[in-house]
Design a protein that fits this description.
mainly beta, 130 residues, five-stranded antiparallel β-sheet, 9 strands, two-stranded antiparallel sheet
Length: 130
């Protein structure tokens, strides 16, 4: 096993909750759905013990029923308590870096936004594999 030297994850949108989300991150979809943008979805947290052959996996959904692919920004941060990835102006927060951008195809739109897309983070090697 080894200890994660940084926090890794991706940006995501989730349903807006006025009790916990800053109104400046509010985003209304064409469908009328109210979402919170620029939220950090962690895969690995700095200081976390990672075991050999350990794989982390998060599930995501398209935000638009006609969406045929989902783009993920794989991020790293020196802040293990990161909540928002960007300022309200869309600029990355201090200490946040984009490591890669990954586009996952999801061409069958029959299920609208009920489709499941998984991002898998393989921690078993000395290099990150997504």
């Amino acid at each position: 096993s080894r200890i994660a030297e940084a926090t890794y994850g991706t940006e995501t949108l989730i349903p807006f909750n006025q009790k916990i989300h800053d109104v400046q991150y509010y985003h209304k979809m064409k469908s009328g759905e109210r979402l919170c943008k620029h939220l950090f979805s962690p895969l690995v947290i700095e200081g976390e013990c990672l075991n050999y052959n350990q794989v982390k996996r998060n599930m995501y959904h398209p935000t638009d029923p006609s969406q045929t692919s989902i783009r993920f920004n794989l991020l790293t941060s020196d802040n293990k308590n990161l909540f928002y990835t960007r300022s309200t102006y869309g600029v990355l927060k201090e200490g946040v870096k984009i490591l890669a951008t990954i586009t996952v195809p999801s061409p069958n739109t029959d299920q609208g936004t009920d489709r499941e897309v998984y991002l898998t983070f393989d921690c078993s090697h000395t290099e990150i594999q997504v």
